[in-house]
Design a protein that fits this description.
Helices cover 75% and strands 0% of the residues. By secondary structure, it is mainly alpha-helical.
């Protein structure tokens, strides 16, 4: 089994969407549109369709905050973002809906750790084309960014790292533990509804036994950011062609989820195995009412994805 996923508890990801949340930490500009899109899709909001329809604007706002596109770069970046969302609507959303339907059909009964890992592998394979498409579109934008913008990106990296250190690496271990429990309970209840005290104890004991190491995670995050900055600067200095730039961006993305550091890669695999086991145990502790809540939640997301995809098809038909 291809265990490329990362921990669902630390930092916690909603549902089975472990691979989705690290884009903004290390990836080059424009590839970050995936972060915005996928956050809109898995944030548990009842208005996914509204949020996703605002995706191109939100992606632009987020990316511009990181690199501050100049007047000449702005139309190219906005066009790339628009292209990505047009592609994503018709090429990816139906697959997301099908995946949710498949998972939904299995959550009425108990699940195994192997099933959870399989779902996560399927999800990661399913969203891989979104990263490839972002790398392809980024390749025509990234080379035109300058040193001033890379310095701004470096400062934004430092700011986000400090915020994550504040949220995940509190000096007092007990504060850190309480924050982790609170995050996890919130995400579990988003899917299953209110949980009971027995389930809270399960979360607490699972977190106490977790191999998650926030220091190691933040160290690897910083290392990947520095590699990204060095790579992007090199591409600009060497005036690399589009194919070379695209290949370099793809490598940056790949190494974020499958670390090129053997020690950290082993840690990722250990964490993935632990996470699958926790999700299975958590699900198997739920009542029929809680499982129905999860079923209804996945149904709602599935419906939103299919509606968004259908809207795209209708617009394409009108254009033709």
């Amino acid at each position: 089994m291809n265990r490329n996923h990362t921990n669902n508890l630390h930092p916690a990801r909603p549902g089975f969407a472990q691979p989705l949340m690290k884009l903004g930490s290390t990836h080059p500009p424009v590839a970050g549109i995936i972060l915005v899109a996928l956050m809109l899709l898995v944030n548990g909001c009842s208005a996914i369709r509204v949020g996703y329809n605002q995706g191109p604007f939100l992606a632009w706002w987020w990316l511009d905050g990181y690199v501050d596109f100049n007047q000449e770069q702005t139309p190219h970046a906005k066009h790339a973002i628009h292209q990505w969302f047009v592609w994503h609507r018709h090429a990816q959303l139906p697959a997301y809906a099908d995946w949710l339907a498949a998972v939904r059909n299995h959550i009425g009964g108990p699940v195994t750790s192997a099933q959870v890992c399989q779902w996560s592998d399927e999800l990661q394979a399913m969203i891989a084309p979104a990263f490839d498409q972002a790398a392809h579109l980024s390749a025509t934008v990234v080379p035109h960014l300058g040193e001033t913008q890379w310095r701004r990106l470096e400062r934004r990296y430092a700011k986000s790292n400090a915020e994550l250190r504040h949220d995940f690496l509190q000096p007092d271990p007990e504060d850190r533990r309480r924050a982790s429990i609170k995050r996890t309970v919130k995400r579990i209840e988003n899917l299953y509804g209110d949980i009971d005290e027995t389930q809270r104890r399960l979360i607490t004991t699972s977190i106490d036994a977790s191999p998650f190491n926030p220091e190691a995670w933040l160290t690897e995050r910083h290392r990947r950011q520095q590699i990204a900055l060095l790579t992007l600067r090199r591409l600009a200095i060497e005036s690399s062609d589009t194919a070379q730039t695209e290949a370099a961006i793809r490598e940056l993305i790949q190494h974020t989820y499958r670390s090129d550091d053997p020690g950290y890669r082993a840690y990722q695999l250990q964490l993935a195995t632990y996470t699958c086991d926790f999700i299975a145990r958590m699900h198997n502790s739920t009542s029929l009412v809680q499982r129905q809540h999860a079923h209804d939640k996945l149904t709602s997301w599935e419906t939103d994805f299919r509606t968004l995809a259908e809207d795209s098809r209708q617009k394409a038909a009108v254009a033709d």
